[in-house]
Amino acid sequence: MNPLSTLSRPQKAAAILVAMGKPSASRLLKFFKQEELKALIEGARLLRTIPQADLERIVAEFEAEFTEGAGLLDSADKMDTILNESLSPEEMDALMGKGDGGKKKDNLLPVWPQLEKLEAAQVGVFLTNEHPQTAAMILSKVAPAYAASVVLTLDKPVRTEIIKRMMEMAVVPEAATKLVESQIRTTVLSESGQKDTSAGQTRVASVLNELDKSQLEEVMGDLAEGGMSDLEAIRARLFAFDDIPLMTQKARVALFDGLSTELLTLALRGTAMPLAEAVLSSIGARSRRMIEAELSQGSEGVPPADILRARKTIASTALRMANEGLLELPTTLNAA
């Protein structure tokens, strides 16, 4: 048994992590530095049994919350389990000083799986600024489904040239592959490139989606003049009810399939014929007749705010379904 007074801070931290369980502890371990993780492992190996009373005192010292439970046994083994399930074998070897450690490249994670974790639009912007032959080589290295999603973000001339070069590509020399991998690490997967800005982009897009068309164009113009980065990624998250005619028939059918006729009727009040037809041509004949009968009675007495709210509901549904991969939105929305 370890007297509480003799436990070091790393040992106490290890005890709390083990008490939290693998799911919660795994998330926290990502925020520790390498030397801190090593100290936790060394501290955990010296732990054996910690009574519940002592564990509660440890938690109190760290001013954290802890659910009442049994004491801890075999803490070192449990810490090993948490670390092994949270870190890759390469990370564990590097952490514990195993392996030759002589060559830095041996500790580098593979480029292509990391690249596939990035948003397709971000990689598309990167490829647009690269030579088409380099872009073709990169797309040939990633999974076909991911490559297809990236290709869809490219302008047609760029897309055509890259696909043409992919068809004609021979075996790429290893030296050239290593050079491209190094470039991707430094320009795309570096700390600045890896920084996940998708949450911020989504927040900005959610605000911009609340603006009407004229306000949106004005704000997007101001952002472009101000040199805001990731503007194209924000554009990809923008969608308004007026953009429905730009959607494919398949995407419109998927969108309206789960929406009520009451919501569609309300949103279509006062719309121009091309927009109304884009909606009506994508629903069943019975629903269409019901909506057309309602619209023929006019929109008098219907609050404009209710109409606007219905249109925003449909636009928000389209964005949610696109994020879930249930439909594809057009890639040329809200061009400044």
| Helix content class | 55-70%
Order of helices and strands: HHHHHHHHHHHHHHHHHHHHH
Query: Could you report the average pLDDT, rounded to the nearest whole number?
Result: 76
User: Major β-sheet, in short?
Assistant: none
Count of DSSP E strands? 0
For this structure, the CATH topology of the largest domain is: Annexin V, domain 1
Please, how many helices? 21
Strand content: under 5%
Low-confidence stretches: 63-75, 100-106
Describe the structure.
The chain has 336 residues and is mainly alpha-helical. It contains 21 helices and no strands. Helix 8 (120-128) packs across helix 10 and helix 18 (261-268) packs across helix 21 (304-323). The relative contact order is 0.07.
Task: Describe the SSE topology.
Elements: H1 9-20, H2 22-29, H3 34-45, H4 52-61, H5 75-86, H6 89-96, H7 111-115, H8 120-128, H9 132-141, H10 144-151, H11 156-168, H12 174-187, H13 191-194, H14 198-208, H15 213-225, H16 231-235, H17 249-256, H18 261-268, H19 273-280, H20 285-295, H21 304-323
Helix pairs in contact: 1-3, 1-5, 2-5, 3-5, 8-10, 9-11, 18-20, 18-21
